[in-house]
Amino acid sequence: MNKDYYKLLGVPRTATERDIKTAYRKLARQYHPDVNPGNAQAEERFKEIAEAHDVLSDPEKRRRFDQFGSGTPRAGAGPGRGSAVNWADVLRQSQGQQRGGRRRVPEAEPDMSDLLKDLFGRAGAGRAGGGAGRPRVGENLEQELSVSLEDAFRGAVREFQVEVPDETGTAVRERIELKIPIGVREGVKLRVAGKGYFGPGGGPRGDLLFKVVIAPHATIERRGDDLHTEVPVAVWDAMLGGEVELRTLGGSGTFRLPAETQNGRTFRLTGQGMPRIEGGKGDLYAKVKVVLPQELTAREKELIEDLRRGRSGPDG
Fold it and tell me: Can you list the domains of the chain with their CATH numbers?
């Protein structure tokens, strides 16, 4: 019985390339030998899933598979769309052609040897090579990486210890050095080439991917390439104006606060935001938070009372 690759991946024949890729990744994670050590059925299932993905993710291979279908052919069925082909018969016919010399092949008849190579190349190579499948690139290994806002602002170099199983299932422990670029954004994937899963059949390894997650900051919020923060301001500085200290990811600084600044007013400091990977910087938005004094002295209360009477008028 021949395999129905659509059923193996659990997708309809109308599935898009993205549907096929999503289904494959989900099933591959479920049946991967690393997740099911010593489970022969899971390993076989994983191989079938990989074979199905190899065919359906390639437009030409998928076209040919759709043309010939799978399973046992119905009586009188030809090689049209939706019909099925008995591959054993195909092989016998192919061998008969070789023994019988030349045979004119109609234009509409596809090259069966190419078709078999496309669809079952890995299985055939395994038998011919004493059980060793054709070398293929290993899967990528992906994991999340939490990056502080300070490291995203300045850039950093991190060192990791990662474990990756080799083809025998033995965990290989390696030290990885990763450069975090200045201005890196949430969701960006940082790649370390050749440090993913080992390739089947002795093939090259996949890559190690770190998906960046920016950790929240205590006082500063990032929005795109802009930064937003609150600036505590004493009530007299808000009323009379003056120099106000501002702490940013780039260090401490000051900016001039105009007199009679209202609580909640936001100031834009151009070019003081996040650095951009492509160059330049975003802006910093500083929102004023007026802070009222506490534990007033008797003299302070007297002065404030005088101010209140003066602002209220003689009848106040």
Answer: 5-128 (1.10.287.110), 141-214 (2.60.260.20), 220-298 (2.60.260.20)
Output DSSP code: residue 275: B
Report the alpha-carbon distance of residue 281 to residue 269 in Å, rounded. 11
Cα–Cα dist 161/219, whole Å: 31
pLDDT (mean) for 75-86: 38
User: CA–CA separation, 168 vs 235, rounded Å?
Assistant: 70
Asked if residues 172 and 164 have their Cβ atoms less than 8 Å apart, the reply is yes
Give the other-Cβ count within 10 Å of 74's Cβ. Answer: 9
Tell me, what's the pLDDT at 214?
A: 93
Cβ neighbours of residue 219 closer than 8 Å, sequence gap 6 or more:
229, 230, 247
pLDDT at 120: 38
- pLDDT greater than 60 at residue 79: no
